[in-house]
Design goal:
- With 408 residues, this protein is α+β, with helices and mostly antiparallel strands.
- It folds into 3 domains: 163 residues, 2-Layer Sandwich (Alpha-Beta Plaits); 59 residues, DNA polymerase, domain 1 (Orthogonal Bundle); 142 residues, Dna Ligase, domain 1 (2-Layer Sandwich), CATH 3.30.1490.100.
- Helices cover 40% and strands 21% of the residues.
- The chain has 16 helices and 12 strands.
- The protein binds a DNA duplex (18 and 18 nucleotides) through helix 9, strand 9, strand 11 and strand 12.
Amino acid sequence: MNQRLILHVDMNAFFASVEQQSNPELRGKPIAVIGRGRTVVTTASYEARAFGVKTGMNTWQAKQACPHVIFVIGDNRKYTHTSTQIMQMMRDYTPLVEVFSIDEAWLDVTHSLALFGSAERIAYLLKARIRQRFGITCSIGIAPNKLLAKLASEMKKPDGLTIIRPDDVPRVLETLPVGDLCGIGRKVEQHLFLMGIRTCGELGRYPVERLTRKFGIVGERLQQMGKGVDDSPVMPVEDEEEVKSVGHSMTLERDISLHNDICKYLLQLSEMVGRRARRYGVAGKTVHLTVRYADFSTIGRQQTRKGYTNQSEEIFREAVSILDSLEISQPVRLLGVRITNLSYQSEQLPLFEDERRKVLATSAMDEVNDRFGNFTVTYGSVLDNEEKGSFVISPAWRPDGIRKVDVE
DNA sequence: TCTGGGGTCCTAGGACCC
DNA sequence: TCTGGGGTCCTAGGACCC
């Protein structure tokens, strides 16, 4: 393969930066963006990070680390809006933009050099424009592939620009801890450590048969990663693979045990899943129910149906039927509903009159909700449910496409 | 470290069929 | 009938990413 030139762009403390821009009083201050209810920090500003506030901490821990931290409840729409515009800006430099999450993207600029000179220049232009228009800084990595570009963007934050040239690769990787690579998490890192592998250099030299014996098919890929090899292409949204599941889950405001209470949440979740599935024209054959107990132990059960559905009521019925097959042994902390085994169906009305009426009623309901907000029109018992659980926004949410999630 | 939510991929075992 | 092997689908759980 010809030498490629890939940029990885990572917005610095994205949610927190957007908040500080939209509210000048927050600028220069330690802030933490959180969800509602039982929640954690999704993003901390650099001022807060200086005190040790980190993503994933609960509010109590954040307060311990930084007593004067300012909590801001996240506003998903604001971030989606800003992200969409930034991603669009990137397309001025190449059509090959892969949106990895709401605040990260790869650009393949291999064929953009005639127009813009160099990858470095593109990075500078992009950084300047993002800062000027949105007041946000980003870190950019430039490298011959996605793996290394992502690694490079992590190396200097905030407002960094790091280049890994093909000649630099062996030197950079030789002493780099394996866990610094995207794709090697804590567990794999531990396994590798027990095998005597700490650095990418060691990983790349390790006999592939022994890695395969331990990790199966992943073993091969691990060795490639250790060598800094990654042939995966930058995939623009149009070429993205079809989504394979649609789901929602929520940690409840309080742990609950009553069957009736659980059902109320399941109805709400089923409606959220169904609506999103209908909006994108998918239907699922399998319904999954996730239950997390107070002690954090989590079980998942699934049921495969005869046919496909994206009707909230049917998803709900399936979820309840799974629930009824379980022994609920402790108070419940989290509930989740998901559909998989998806089919991308063209709009088709069912054959039978009563079915047809139901589908038409659902789409009328969807229309109202699209216009006036979620749960404007819904099934009676959702409205009874005063505590809606906590919707935590996450940087992993996509700014567009089927994975886009609207909350409230 | 009392610990959110949306996804993907992989593994291993069982049912079922030919 | 005491017993093979491959393919496919389903299920449960875990690792990983943001």
